[in-house]
Automatic annotation (TrEMBL):
It comes from Xenorhabdus doucetiae. SUPFAM superfamilies: Carbon-nitrogen hydrolase. This is Aliphatic nitrilase. Residues 7-282 form the CN hydrolase domain. GO terms for molecular function: nitrilase activity. Signal peptide: none annotated. Belongs to the carbon-nitrogen hydrolase superfamily. Nitrilase family. The lineage of its organism: Bacteria, Pseudomonadati, Pseudomonadota, Gammaproteobacteria, Enterobacterales.
Length: 327
């Protein structure tokens, strides 16, 4: 008999200790404990929470922002590595699944960075490392493209879990790729972006994207968004006099939990810091699919054909001699 999990989920809305990797990892471990102590079996953290978003790309010229790019490279982490291992130990210690965004540095390139989401099991195992497929707009000055090798849904104690970072949640094909693998729990990680165009409502954009994925796929989405701390504003203002004004717009951070009908569960957080909690019953994903199951009976796979290349991409392929060959 089919028995789907019921659990409590948590979404963190907070700012990292800007470009201070060690201090931010310590903060992450404290927030993991707080979420677990409040009964959560899953906690989601914002995009690139370890340890900061490149706001200089939006408020400075590329030349002005270049010294900040160097600082970000030096604060970035490798996966696996000691920083993520420390977070994984906290996940295991508190028996909680964790999804966290990090600036990942390539092990073979000191200035090649990825916007990465790391999924950790409640036993402290690294289940997945998803690199953002396409950095959004000004982010292309900082991050390289990821590949689809990590576009996978993970089998966890709380159910089939998939993740996407920020603007990827606008990518219909990426979302469908996760749904087609049986995703029932989705984590969408964001950053607060007050420097968006003046007629762009960041809070509504985040909520709408999550609602669309939930309603189309009949899944739950946990949305975690960062905030902009006075520390970040001060740092950017020291390099650019208009940064304070550009980063001051409110209604730019939304964290919350959305059900398979596209409606927000409980009370989301807008702009302010905290942790959002909600009880999730994956059995609620069943009945709505009788009407629309876009990865099953409500589709025409004889007409539509989506192909996803999940082979890892690399800068070079080496063809080494077979063992025993003469030099």
């Amino acid at each position: 008999m089919l028995k789907l999990p019921k659990f409590k989920a948590a979404a963190v809305q907070a700012a990292p200790v800007f470009l201070d990797t060690e201090a931010t990892v310590d903060l992450v471990c404290r927030l993991i404990q707080e979420a677990a102590d409040n009964g959560a079996s899953l906690v989601a953290f914002p995009e690139v929470f370890v340890s900061g978003y490149p706001y200089w790309n939006w408020v400075m010229t590329p030349i002005q922002g270049s010294p900040w790019f160097e600082k970000l490279c030096k604060s970035a982490i490798e996966v696996p590595g000691p920083e993520i291992n420390k977070i994984a130990r906290a996940a295991a210690r508190h028996h909680i699944n964790v999804v966290i965004g990090v600036n990942e540095r390539s092990p073979t390139g000191v200035a090649t960075l990825y916007n990465t989401l790391v999924t950790l099991s409640d036993k402290g195992q690294i289940l997945g490392r998803h690199r953002k497929l396409v950095p959004t707009w000004a982010e292309k000055l900082t991050w390289a493209n990821g590949d689809a090798s990590s576009l996978k849904v993970h089998d966890t104690r709380i159910g089939p879990l998939g993740v996407l970072a920020c603007g990827e949640n606008t990518n219909t094909l990426a979302r469908f790729s996760l749904l087609s693998q049986g995703e029932l729990v989705h984590v969408a990680s964001y950053i607060s972006l007050p420097v968006a165009p003046p007629d762009y409502d960041m809070v509504e954009a985040i909520r709408l994207r999550a609602a669309a994925h939930c309603f189309e796929g009949k899944v739950f989405t946990i949305v975690s968004c960062s905030t902009i701390s006075p520390e970040i504003v001060k740092a950017m203002s020291a390099s650019h006099p208009e940064a304070e004004q550009l980063l001051a717009r409110s209604n730019s951070a939304f964290s919350g939990i959305i059900g398979p009908d596209g409606r927000v569960i409980g009370h989301p957080l807008i702009d302010r810091e905290g942790i959002v909690y909600a009880d999730i019953d994956l059995n609620r994903c069943i009945q709505p699919r009788q009407m629309h199951d876009i990865t099953g009976h409500y589709n025409r796979f004889d007409i539509f054909d989506l192909s996803v290349d999940r082979r890892p991409q690399s800068a070079v392929r080496f063809t080494d001699p077979v063992q025993g060959d003469q030099p």
